[in-house]
Each structure stands twice: as C-alpha cells, then as structure tokens.
TrEMBL record:
Name of protein: histidine kinase
Pfam family, any one: Response_reg
Any GO molecular function: phosphorelay sensor kinase activity
Catalytic activity: ATP + protein L-histidine = ADP + protein N-phospho-L-histidine
Native species: Adhaeribacter radiodurans
Modified residues (4-aspartylphosphate): 58
Higher taxonomy: Bacteria, Pseudomonadati, Bacteroidota, Cytophagia, Cytophagales
EC number(s) stated in the UniProt entry for this protein: 2.7.13.3
CDD domains for the chain: HATPase, HisKA, REC
SUPFAM superfamilies membership: ATPase domain of HSP90 chaperone/DNA topoisomerase II/histidine kinase (SSF55874), CheY-like (SSF52172), Homodimeric domain of signal transducing histidine kinase (SSF47384)
Keywords: Coiled coil, Kinase, Phosphoprotein, Transferase, Two-component regulatory system
Domain Response regulatory: 6-123
Transmembrane regions: none
C-alpha cells in the first residue's frame, strides 16, 4: 500500500479544520494523513521538523498572515510545497503568494475534493522538479570547488619546480580560464533551467485549474484538450531534465561505449514507431534501410539516444504535414544513419557554433529547447568512435549524417 501523504493545515479556525478534514475524506481512494495547528509559532516549529509532504496555510492567522509564515519557512530551508488558502479570489494575493514561493492557492468555501487533490498532487510534483534542479546546481558548485583546489595545487606545484616565469604564467592562465568557463556554465545552467521549467509548469498549473471547471459531459472535449497540454508539458520537462542529467554524466566520464550485436533495421523501425506519438500533426517519418544484411555491433542505447534526438529535432523545426526522411545503410566498411528534414534550416553564420554547449541558432529562439541536444549527440557519437556531419540550407531543411566503422576494432 502506498505511503500516506502527510498534510499539515495551519488555520486558527477549528471549523475550517473540520471542513478541510471532510473534504480530504471525500477524495476518492483517499491516502492522506491530516494534522492541524492553529498557532503561527507552533506551525513554524512543526515545519522545521520536515515531517510533512505539503502544507495548507490559511491567509489569516491572527496577528500574522499566511504569506509571512510561508516566507519564514522557505527562508529557513523548507523544501515541501505550500498551498495558500484565501477567503476570496484576489489576483494581487495570488501574485504575492507565487513571488514568495507558494506552489498554488485555493479559495476557501469553493474548492472541491478534486480541486484539493489536484493542487496537492501538482504542488508535490513541482517541488520534486525544483529539488532536482537544486541538486544538479549543487553538483556543479562542488565541481567548481574541485577545480579551485586543482588551481591551488597547480600554483603550489609551479612554485616547487624550476619552470620559467613565462611557463608558470601560461599554466595559471589556463587554470583560471577553466575556472571561468565552469562558473559561466553554472550560471547559464541555472538561468536556462529556471526559464525552461517556468513555461511547462505554468501550462500544467493553468490547464489543471481549468479542467476542474469543466464538470459537464459536453465539456469532455475541453477537458481532453487540457489533458493533452499537461501531457505535452510534462514530456517537455522530462526531456529537459534528461538533457541536463545526460550532460552531467558525460562531464563526469560516466558514459561508456558498450557495443552489442543486433539487427539494425528492426531497431530503427521500432524507433520510428515510438516517435509517432511525438511528431506534429500530418508529419510523416519515411524510413528506408539500404545495403547489406543488417547485423551491426554498436552501443544500442547510445545509438537510440542519438536517433531519437535527431528525429525529435527534425520534427520540432519542421512544419505540420512535412516529411522526415530517415535512412540507414550498411556497407562492408561503414554503418551510416541519416536524418533529413524540410524545416527552417540553420543560418550559415550560426553553423560553426552548432555543437557548442547551450547554443541556439538565431531562427530557433521561438522553439522550446536548452541548446544541449546536439552537443550531447556529438559527444555520444565521439564516445562511439563515429563521425557526425550535417548540411543545411536556410528555409529548406537540414540533413544530419552519423557514420561508424563496421568493425569497431578498426
């Protein structure tokens, strides 16, 4: 049986506690453990014990208010989500709550068991996503400390040797440049992660709120529309997190080339089938295998990641109704995979920076993305001892070609 979700209600009105308790008990398959306190100071003490999964905070708390409680709790390090309960729908209060760190707000006397369950569930998921970002940020900070220590050790080593002054200066400059680059990487990571997470999370919250308003059978089409928006936003969030996690593993040297022997054609056809649920309306992936019998020896998972990324990009940067041409080819010496689209193309001035970390072409700024995908693809191809080439014409399309030696020992 799943572990109960522990909820703390902070409200100075016992009647409101009883109402909230009854609403929670009406949630289907209710799996909640509700506790209550009416004291501002006692609430802070309990929150600092980190024993609850989510907090329901009343806006009015005697001489204090719920916004003050949320601000103090977050300032002291609380990571669990806070949901503000207000007496009336007030945009200004809503904006204040979001600015100080509340995950959501509900209007007392109007929300249903469905509304409360939805708010708790999405607030907890939102908190998990933010915790993951902070974890990755902490790992980057640790790597900065390691690089700083390496710099200190390099200076000590230089002092203990008979290197010339010029050589010592060059060594220090290189170490300082690495330090600068890593700090810039950390800063850009935090900025991009915060920006890219904000849009899909807002989509999830707004669509989830609107779903609760469509209660009639004839509203089913509207509900399904917002369910699709939520699924798309969650998929986007998952892709962003996967990109950041993949980059982190590559930087730490935890990605290895582990070749296995498998049939290339059904492998590629399976990926095409998997992509059907993600491409745009009317788009079509035209797959063709050429050449010799299709047994190959490659790292299957890395090849799948490369293929999915290139096909996803081809769909993203092409319009509805366009065709994506996907080809695999085997010769006695080489294994080649090619993805060609009819999309927006890459400006010639941007092509030399295409595989640079976090780089986005000038004509791609209106498309979702972190600028990590092609950098990760290039690194995966390098790990597999392959080569990656591309050709692109602005407003006509782009072709990516991945090439591997047939015999890995060559």
């Amino acid at each position: 049986m799943p572990e109960k979700i522990k909820v703390l209600l902070v409200d100075d009105d016992e009647d409101d506690y009883i109402i909230t308790r009854d609403i929670i008990s009406d949630i289907p398959a209710s799996n909640y453990q509700l506790e209550w306190t009416s004291s501002f100071d006692e609430a802070l003490t309990i929150i600092h014990q980190w024993n609850h999964d989510v907090y329901l905070i009343d806006y009015r708390l005697g001489a204090h208010d719920g916004l003050e409680l949320i601000a103090k709790a977050i300032e002291s390090g609380s990571m669990a989500p806070f949901i503000l309960l207000t007496g009336q729908s007030d945009r200004e209060t809503d904006e204040k709550a979001m600015r100080i760190g509340a995950s959501d707000y509900l209007v007392k006397g109007t929300f249903t068991p469905f509304d409360l369950e939805r708010s708790v569930r999405y607030s907890i998921e939102h908190a998990k996503s933010l915790a993951e970002i902070q974890k990755l940020n902490s790992e980057l900070e640790q790597r900065v400390k390691v690089r700083t220590q390496e710099l200190a050790e390099a200076v000590i080593k230089l002092e203990e040797t008979n290197k010339s002054l010029f050589e010592a200066q060059q060594e220090i400059k290189k170490a300082l440049q690495k330090e600068k680059e890593l700090n810039e990487l950390k800063s850009r990571f935090v900025t991009i992660a915060s920006h890219e997470f904000r849009t899909p999370l807002s989509t999830v919250l707004s669509s989830a709120s609107l779903i609760g308003k469509y209660k009639l059978t004839e509203d089913d089409e509207k509900r399904q529309k917002h369910v699709s928006r939520i699924k798309s936003a969650v998929s986007n969030l998952t892709g962003i997190l996967n990109d950041f996690l993949s980059l982190s593993r590559i930087e730490e040297g935890k990605i290895y080339n582990v070749p296995t022997t498998f049939a290339l054609e059904p492998f590629a056809a399976g990926i095409v089938e998997e992509m059907q649920g993600y491409i745009k309306v009317g788009q079509h992936i035209q797959y063709q295998h050429q050449g010799q019998p299709d047994q190959v020896t490659l790292d299957k998972q890395l090849l799948k990641n490369i293929t999915l990324n290139l096909l996803s990009n081809a769909s993203k940067y092409s319009g509805e109704g366009k065709t994506i041409y996907f080809t695999t080819n085997i010769t006695p010496e080489r294994i080649t995979m090619q993805v060609q689209d009819e999309g927006i193309g890459i400006p010639e001035a941007d092509q030399t920076h295409l595989f640079t970390l976090f780089f986005r072409a000038q004509n791609a700024t209106n498309y979702e993305g972190t600028g990590l995908g092609l950098n990760i693809v290039k690194r995966y191809v390098d790990i597999m001892n392959g080569t990656l080439h591309y050709q692109s014409v602005l407003n006509k399309g782009t072709t990516f070609t991945v090439d591997f030696p047939r015999n890995p020992s060559l």
